[in-house]
Amino acid sequence: MTSSLLSPVSVAGLKLANRLVMAPMTRFRSPGGVPTAAVADYYRRRAENGIGLIVTEGTLVGHPTASHETTVPRMTAGAAEAGWQQVTGAVHAAGGRIATQLWHLGSERSPVDGIEAWTPSGVGGHPMTTAEIDVIVAAFGEAARVAARAGFDAVEIHAAHGYLLDEFLWPSTNHRTDAFGGSPARRAAFPAEVIRAVRGELPVIVRFSQFKERDYDARIASSPAELEQILTVLADAGADVFHASQRRFWEPAFPGSPLNLAGWARELTGRPAITVGSVTLTRDVPRLDRLLAGLADGEYDLVALGRILLGNPAWGRLLTEGRLSEVRDFEKSHEDVYH
Ligand SMILES: Cc1cc2nc3c(=O)[nH]c(=O)nc-3n(C[C@H](O)[C@H](O)[C@H](O)COP(=O)(O)O)c2cc1C
């Protein structure tokens, strides 16, 4: 019954063993921004247990405004690059593929160390000048070059959940009147510049969402037509795959159609799409029928799992071997374990 989840697929030139993706999850295990051997073991364990594509935790681009966090990994030359080389080598040796999620926190950066957050229009920090926009675009480009050298198979641009790129997409935080604000298409101009700066190095996945960490009801697009304006700009800039972040994958993105957000991204752009959001948190995989129907209908191509993989590194193998009864249901405490 789950064979469609386990069938090989080629997406954006990437040959994947199956449709399963590990969703990006921040774990705070990289002191000084450098991933350790434990980080390599953690990702290798998911790859050798049947996750076709891993997306790393959010990884900071090399600019001081990206984040105040010291144990979130960075994508910078030197020690971090060498650490990532160990990670990609371990995943590849296990037969897996791995993308890195490139991240700038925007207004969510704490000024704890005296550095002010950068934002589109001053909501929660300093309003970026066009020169500062160029600096951050260049930082993403440099991070993609480091990722390519470190052996990654793809990059994922984090344009979701209310961080910097999403703050440009969201009208509540983008009040600019220059080329980077106004219509949905113009709000997408900065994320599009970032995509242009990273493309050519590696296939580009773009993660976006309607909801924000601080506002679950927020929306970047109030209709499919508005979403089309945004995603067309991003696709034209070079987005190869869209990763549509929802809290519950089965929820329709807009009234009048059962399509979820990934389904709309695929429908509007023709690009492959990844769905995510409470795909399973328990051993019984509720809504498996809905999940498989979406794959069969071409609503999305890949399925990402987050929290269930924290306590179950071998989830992919348990699925493959028909042993889901052995899955440990997700509990909040799994966010504190690292294995
Ligand atoms: C501990 C934790 C850390 C997360 N960190 C990130 C992150 O760095 N980047 C991101 O885009 N999403 C992040 N997310 C969201 C997940 O990628 C995923 O979309 C979410 O957990 C929903 O999937 P799930 O219901 O299968 O857990 C995180 C989620 C959790 C639980």
UniProtKB/TrEMBL annotation:
Gene3D superfamilies: Aldolase class I
The protein, known as: 12-oxophytodienoate reductase
Cited InterPro entries: Aldolase_TIM (IPR013785), OxRdtase_FMN_N (IPR001155), Oye-like (IPR045247)
Taxonomic source organism: Actinoplanes couchii
UniProt-listed SUPFAM superfamilies: FMN-linked oxidoreductases
Domain NADH:flavin oxidoreductase/NADH oxidase N-terminal: 5-323
Source organism superkingdom: Bacteria
One matching Pfam family: Oxidored_FMN
